[in-house]
Amino acid sequence: MDVYLPIANLSVNGLWIVALGGLTGILSGLFGVGGGFLTTPLLIFYGVPPTVAAASASTQVTGASVTGVIAHGNRGGVDYRMGAVLVAGGVFGAGIGALLFRFFRSIGQIDVVISGLYVVLLGTIGLLMARESIQVLRGTGAAKQAARRRHHPLVASLPMRWRFYGSGLYISPLAPFIVGIAVGTLTMLMGVGGGFILVPAMLYILGMSANVVVGTSLFNILFVTISTTMMHSLTTKSVDIVLVVLLLLGSVTGAQIGSQLAVKVKPDALRLVLAAIVLVIAFRMFLGLFYQPEEIYTISPL
User: Which of 184, 194, 264, 275 has CB 3.0 to 4.6 Å from 94, enough for a Cys bridge?
Assistant: First the structure.
């Protein structure tokens, strides 16, 4: 079933796009990530221009996050107060990201920037997650020490502390606000929900309780991707509605499946699987920086 994507100026297999949406939806429910870190690169590999892939994937992430938040919220797995602070920072960061997106696009470097960010961020985070997951599964002393770790010392030094009862924390709201800004900026630039950065930051920087990390991450992703989608629609004009609908068809169902699996599978094993997926994507994006596509394309008007 071939369909035509008007903004991308490309014909694709619609069933393949729906299946991709389903896969990213499952990842969303399992790990608390929006799934955009997988959707955007795979769309690029399939021939969709990076600008269209990034803008359209952020919309698909929104749909997957809605169902994920509902599922985790029903079991008390969302810290709404922490999520609200993260969202405030994320919306502010999305504005910064929109300005950066327009700048890099104006100088013709946005595709390189998107791919480069994926390589650096996915590679770094994937290695860190893989190392700690292996340590935990082996039961080493370093892993046990990491399991007892609370928030980062810099977080403890920030003023004006609040109590975040859902996360079991007493920290300054400036810490999650700054984390939200970083995630919002990357969401705008890369078309990701930001969960692949937000989840490690919530665990290792903010020191949040593991049982609310996934749900709170999806809560943040939901509202930040809504704002970034609106900004993309109004500024970059790169959202392909046909592509978005196909992705949403699969992701909404996939998120429910992932949320059910999340409570049945060992968390450390899940994190190791996620780390492996992240590293594979990073390596493929790295290779993509060094070869020229068979067809040079643009979405700018002639």
Answer: 184
